[in-house]
Specification:
A six-stranded mixed beta sheet has the order 6-7-8-3-9-10, sandwiched between helices. It has a four-stranded antiparallel beta sheet with strand order 2-1-4-5, with helices on one face. Helix 5 runs parallel beside helix 6 and helix 8 crosses helix 9. The chain folds into two domains: about 170 residues, P-loop containing nucleotide triphosphate hydrolases (Rossmann fold, 3-Layer(aba) Sandwich), CATH 3.40.50; about 55 residues, no CATH class. The N and C termini lie far apart (about 45 Å). The chain is built from nine helices and ten strands. The protein has about 260 residues and is α/β, with parallel strands linked by helices. It binds adenosine-5'-diphosphate and magnesium ion. Magnesium ion (MG) binds next to helix 1.
């Protein structure tokens, strides 16, 4: 059994890409239990690629991703399923099924991965939607609620199986600043009250400063981590010009 003070995720020497193109090279970092950990970087820097490798969706060319004591890169069969049961994911494209109500969307993972009966599943789906403030909207179709509410419902669906770890890929993409701030507040509340570890991909600075305990910044020029730690410290003290540029929203001097 993993100890409490052990990191919940250990990424070691991960090299990954597509076909012959290397996107990330020899990347290593830890995610601590219960923290809100943010992966940031410019468009195309490999944030989604890193996330997909951390959840075992893509296989790296080398390296390991140890989740709660087990390496998802090599795990197969039941061992793999056991790891996957611990994680919930909201993909960047992670839309709800439009023809299904919010409750039906949240029921899906429960129907697929548990032996619970219909009433139990209904109850859990309702509880999860309550948790994200959507108790009044369980019977609505996605198109009948706002973009922010759709994101919250997608988070409820990702939490259906009570994951220890939640991965969110650009949760506030396409939301206005106020809705985005509400989503940040929800994420923070869920992390603090449930002890869920969050790994969030974003490049939205207000979000990063609002919720991140720690960040790593990936950069396509080095194919790796160029900064790691507390976002305010990085903004104020980093001696890396790319990092300062990013945090101060300065345009790039030259195209890379
Ligand atoms: P980010 O999420 O930081 O915007 P991605 O991880 O999506 O970046 O992409 C990193 C790089 O990998 C980009 O150059 C992108 O075009 C490329 N890429 C992403 N997905 C694929 C794929 N399935 N096949 C080939 N190249 C990809
Ligand atoms: Mg992405």
């Amino acid at each position: 059994m993993a100890r409490d003070d052990e990191p919940i995720i250990e990424v070691r020497d991960l090299t990954a890409g597509y076909d012959d193109v290397v996107i990330l090279e020899h990347v290593s970092f830890d995610v601590r239990r219960g923290e809100i950990f943010v992966i940031l970087g410019g468009s195309g820097s490999g944030k989604s690629t890193l996330l997909k490798h951390m959840i075992g969706l893509d296989e790296p060319s080398s390296g390991s991703v140890v989740i709660d004591g087990a390496d998802i890169v090599v795990a197969e069969g039941d061992a793999r399923r056991e790891i996957l049961r611990k994680i919930g994911v909201m993909y960047q494209s992670g839309a709800l099924f439009g023809s299904m109500t919010l409750a039906e969307n949240v029921r899906l993972p429960l129907e697929e991965y548990t032996d619970l009966d219909g009433d139990e599943i209904e109850l859990i789906a309702r509880m999860k939607l309550e948790l994200v403030g959507l108790a009044q909207f369980t019977g609505h179709l996605p198109a009948e609620v706002s973009g922010g509410m759709q994101k919250r419902a997608a988070i409820a669906r990702a939490m259906a199986l009570d994951p220890k770890i939640l991965f969110l890929d650009e949760p506030s993409a396409g939301l206005d600043p106020i809705t985005s701030a509400e989503l940040d507040a929800l994420i923070k509340r869920l992390a603090r009250s449930l002890g869920v570890t969050f790994i969030i991909v974003t490049h939205e600075l207000p979000s990063i400063f609002a919720i991140a305990d720690r960040v790593i910044m990936v950069d396509r020029r080095t194919r790796g981590i160029v900064a790691e730690g507390d976002p305010r410290r990085l903004r104020d003290q980093s001696d890396n010009p790319w990092v300062r540029q990013f945090f101060r929203r300065e345009p790039e001097a030259q195209p890379a």
